[in-house]
Design brief:
186 residues; Rossmann fold; 7-stranded mixed sheet; 24% strand; globular; binds S-adenosylmethionine
């Protein structure tokens, strides 16, 4: 069956806050998740339903805003980025979107230095969108941080083969929006 590209391209209309986050990303040269991918992140966070989420790669907050909108209303998004300047923009937009500061834990640093400091086995969902060269190491960290039944979502396929080839995960490719790989922690 043919896919209706008009529908997939224009179905998700972002509000002013998301448009601002997207505009700032363009200004600083980042490519945030697409509208379709953002909506999928919100859906997966809501289906979980996710209370504790880790995001690797805050950027200017596009994916974080979508995740926060899907998560439980008492949930906390821990988001990591090496660039404090991007995170300052994201923090302002999270606040403007109405999320109290207690809903976000914004950590500036290299993901591979921050992830070992997070608690094992307590997270419901981890979204990976940082340095693609480090994808496999992020997946390994996700295996430690997620509770059983928790969900890892990779933007793109970097690190995905380690998910496929390990008995720890039940993976699936989601060829929607930017293309994601998701896997349940067994
Ligand atoms: C594609 S952008 C993230 C976009 C964001 N997820 C969104 O959709 O709005 C990738 C981000 O990863 C960050 N990054 C790159 N290398 C990193 C590292 N080693 N540790 C943490 N963050 C890193 C960059 O600063 C950048 O903000």
């Amino acid at each position: 069956m043919a896919i209706d590209t008009d529908l997939t391209g224009s179905f998700h209309q972002e509000d002013l806050i998301l448009q601002t986050a997207r505009g700032l990303a363009a200004e600083v040269g980042l490519t945030p998740v697409s509208e379709a991918t953002g909506a999928l992140l919100a859906l997966l966070a809501a289906a979980s339903p996710a209370k504790s989420v880790v995001e690797i790669g805050t950027g200017t907050g596009v994916s974080g805003l979508w995740l926060l909108r899907g998560m439980r209303s008492d949930g906390v998004l821990t988001t990591i980025d090496i660039e404090g300047e991007y995170q300052r923009m994201a923090r302002r937009l999270f606040t403007e979107a109405g999320f109290p500061s207690a809903r976000t834990r914004i950590i500036t640093g290299r993901a591979l230095e921050v992830l070992p400091r997070l608690s094992d086995g307590i997270y419901d969902l981890i979204f990976i969108d940082g340095d693609r060269a480090e994808g496999e190491s992020y997946v390994e960290a996700a295996g430690r941080l997620l509770r059983k039944g928790g969900l890892v979502i990779l933007r793109g396929t970097h690190g995905a083969t380690s998910i496929r080839d390990s008995g720890l995960w039940a993976p699936a490719v989601i060829p929607s929006g930017d293309g994601l790989v998701a896997a349940i922690r067994l």
